[in-house]
Amino acid sequence: MKRLTLLGATGSIGLRTLELVSSFPDDFEVAALAARGSNVDLVVDLVRKYSPRAVALLDRDALERLARALPSPRPELFAGPEGLATVARDVDADIVVSALVGGVGLLPTMAAIQSGRTVALANKETLVMAGSLMTAAARERGVALLPVDSEHNAVFQCLAGHNRADVHRILLTASGGPFRETPKAKLDHATVEDALRHPTWKMGAKITIDSATLMNKGLEVIEARWLFDVAPEQVQIIIHPQSIVHSMVEYVDGSVIAQLGVADMGIPILYALTYPERRPVPAARLDLTRAGALTFFPPDTDRFPCLVLAREALDAGGLAPAVLNAANEIAVAAFLDRRVGFMEIPALIRRALDRHPGGALRSIDECIAADADTRAAVRAWIDARSGG
User: 325 with 291, same domain?
Assistant: First the structure.
């Protein structure tokens, strides 16, 4: 029986993880749940169903509402960023599933690593912001970082049993998002509704917009660089509209190994939870005789400049990726609030990167400071252009 602490319990990854817990009651139990707190009623339902020993909500007011809604005896309750870190660090668990969206996952994920707990990582922003620090801490503590993102989990599977020194390049596939064939001139007028119509995956709003801008692939390039300890130029993006090949690894002899499957996040989640074993996922199976043609082509960086910005941040190193991530989060939130246009997202990120003087990444505190400074600056720019 594996005990799980689930960070991001009410998001798409969190809820799919809990479905798997229900499907395998003899294999998993929930030790702790954590969430932002935007849906207290859902958290109440999850607590009643899974009986965690502890619950943490980022929103302190939401935690008070949760406390009033739960009968005694109730789990131990924690609030704020420090509360998220506390359940990741102190609750006895075999695996911490890091599925919070955005930079809020940084501190609790580091707390889990420093406590020596295995981390199933779905929060790509953590490695984007502080990849060198996170991976160094994981090596020092002997902690396994098991990727949950479908692309990185696919790479992880393609690397199994092979010599890492024989890797020539990693090929991360991308569906291309809802604007894969949209002319650049029309992207200026793209609506929130248009951007949220992902052709393949059902995800949260922020991740879906990242898919529309292809920033999710830029973030994944940075994540892969640290997760698999490869040079930036060894990670490449390929557009694959069918979303059947989830990623590939090319070796020095020219062999390319791919991982294929249906578009169901249950597969990579369960593999991370049971690694190195496998379990039969209760989901549809891939039938290649019905799949049709599989196509691949390079991304258009002119229409999707976020890919270029992510590469620049990775090459610059230091605090630049943290700046990139912070600016993107604020710009995407503003787009979802209809305060900026779709193509203003990369423009705001460019401005943030140009503003930042650079510098080495020496500590988590420096990363958090750069993150907060960038968020404040981008908010101010948006407020100035939209009249507050």
Answer: no
